[in-house]
Amino acid sequence: MPKRCCLSQAYDTDYLSSLSDEVLLHVLSFLSVPSLLLCQSVSRRFHDLAGDSELWKRQYYFRWVRPRVRRLGVRHATPHFPHIGYSPKVSTWLDHGHLAKEGKVTNWKRQYRLRHNWSKGICRVTAVELSQPPKPPVLVKFCAGLIFTADSGHGLRAWHADNPESCSANVPFTGSESQAPMVPTSLTASYCPQQDVVRIAVGFESGCFSVYNMDTGALRLELRFTHSSSADGAIIGMASSFPYVLMVSRRNALSLFMVSSMNENSDQAPSELTEEAYLLTTLKAESILGPMSLSVRIAGSEIISSIVYSFYHTGCGWSVGIQELHFDEGGQQINSRLTTTVDCQYGIAPSHFSSRATRQNRPSSNGDLYGWHTEPSILHREPPTSISYSHPYLLTSHADNTLTVYLVVSTAARLYVKGGQRLWGHTSSVSAVQVGDRGKAVSVSSRGDEIRIWELEPLISHFGTQKTLEENSIQVSPENKQYRKYEAFGVLSRVPRYEVGGSQFHSLEKSCGLDQSHGSVEFDDKRVLLLRERKIGNQLLEFYDFT
């Protein structure tokens, strides 16, 4: 009997290989992120096509940029944002100008993964022990991907976050008056993109301060000048936006300096010019209660320096005060303004009454008079554990496991604080908090075992409206569940280094005697840097990498 003919269709026909890359890219542009990742495992060709940077650029826009534009109410075209639809020009995206620098090529898949990891708290953590034990403790600042540490024994050191195996640069602290070591008490750094340098200012116990330049390309650190000590005591706080440096002394003197070249008309290179600091103004207070936060920013033709401090108010407990000093480009003071968070803690809308009227007309009897609440909606019985201010965001942390966020509004007419909302999520006392100018904040518990990421912009955008959004924080969860001992020594000292994460972190904490974190948390677009102190006195740096 003859065999029957096979009538089955040929399902193995390849319909895709004959298509051009352009057509396939157009097809792939309609796929979701999980589908793109699946396509990358099909073949080498699809691995390259599904990983195309333009595909991930569109995914990035529709996942991260467009929802924010809609949330902020950018509905109509403006000169800066011509439309809210997708545009390949990153310069038209809201707050993404840093990714549109000329000559910079962005890996959009990597950028998408970075934002995704931040949104989920996914990272890898590396713990690094500092030298034993520094007295006073080491000062740490994180700027432009560089970690700067200052202590009397090693001077000013710079470490690259991408390659922390060795110190990139080091300059010792030397005093001209005596051979005694100079003890640093404050540290600040700011990035200057025009010169591609980081400018660092270090304040000392003697009252003097030094300014350094860090060439980010050549990784060269050099001392520019040292300003002689004053009679106001040790410098305990600093902020900078060069050429301006703001500092506060132990004797409650707030000083603003301008750094300028002594021979500006010279043909010398900027790195060869002699610089000096000139005092613009000094304010003295009877007392400044810590914690505090200093800020310097340039707004148009004005330089605005701010000091944020805590004080006790009889009605609503501990509150926060803000003083702004405005200067023109020539260094002349043109305005000084003061406001507090007292009205916000009572739930008073600043648009209805001025802050002066608020203080004069607050009712003393029970009931609600003129819409004023006799009982505060936000009451703090203990001083804040830390304060962070990056205009317009003001954030305070507290020992009752909460944070409080405010919106600072500074116009040509007035300065006031808007809103005010408690943030819940921590399960223990919050010891340190840091907020950035784009509304992202990082907070850490007193033991350092709980780190949370906050997106404040959605909350702030609804201040003053009937709609109240519930806060939503993300707990950092390192994905490296095992820690391993490196054969190499620690980055900042000759002690073993560990990578820790997950449940292993608590065993390391117990064995090493970790006590608490001391108000030092820094972050950038890729990493979080946390400084912790052990019971035995030495310190530990932790790098949380979200890339």
Q: Which stretches are low in confidence, meaning pLDDT under 50 for 5 or more residues running?
A: 75-82, 352-371, 481-514
Specify the number of helices: 9
Mean pLDDT: 81
Main sheet summary: 7 strands, mixed
Counting helices, strands and paired strands, the structural category is: mainly beta
Question: Over all CA atoms, what is the radius of gyration?
Answer: 27 Å
Distance between the termini: 68 Å
Q: What is the CATH class of the domain at 21-119?
A: Mainly Alpha
Share of residues in strands: 35-45%
How many strand segments? 31
CATH architecture of the domain at 21-119: Up-down Bundle
CATH topology (level 3) name of the domain at 21-119: Monooxygenase
- Tell me the overall shape: globular
Quaternary structure state of the chains depicted: single chain
Helix amount, in percent?
Answer: 10-25%
GO cellular component, one term: SCF ubiquitin ligase complex
Domain F-box: 13-59
Protein name: Probable E3 ubiquitin ligase complex SCF subunit sconB
WD repeats: 423-457
Give an overview in words:
Residues 13-59 form the F-box domain. Component of the SCF(sconB) E3 ubiquitin ligase complex involved in the regulation of sulfur metabolite repression, probably by mediating the inactivation or degradation of the metR transcription factor. Keywords: WD repeat. WD repeats lie at residues 423-457. Component of the SCF(sconB) E3 ubiquitin ligase complex. There is one protein chain. The chain has a domain at 21-119: Monooxygenase. The radius of gyration is 27 Å and the shape is globular. The strands form 7 sheets. Strands 1, 26, 27, 28, 29, 30 and 31 form a 7-stranded mixed β-sheet that branches. The termini are far apart. It is mainly beta and 547 residues long. Helices cover 14% and strands 40% of the residues. It has helices at residues 21-28, 33-39, 44-50, 53-71, 108-120, 342-345, 355-360, 457-460, 504-512, and strands spanning 122-129, 139-143, 146-151, 155-160, 169-171, 184-192, 197-204, 209-215, 220-227, 235-241, 244-249, 253-261, 275-284, 289-299, 302-313, 317-327, 333-340, 386-390, 393-397, 403-410, 415-423, 430-435, 440-445, 451-455, 473-475, 477-478, 485-489, 496-500, 514-523, 527-534, 539-545.
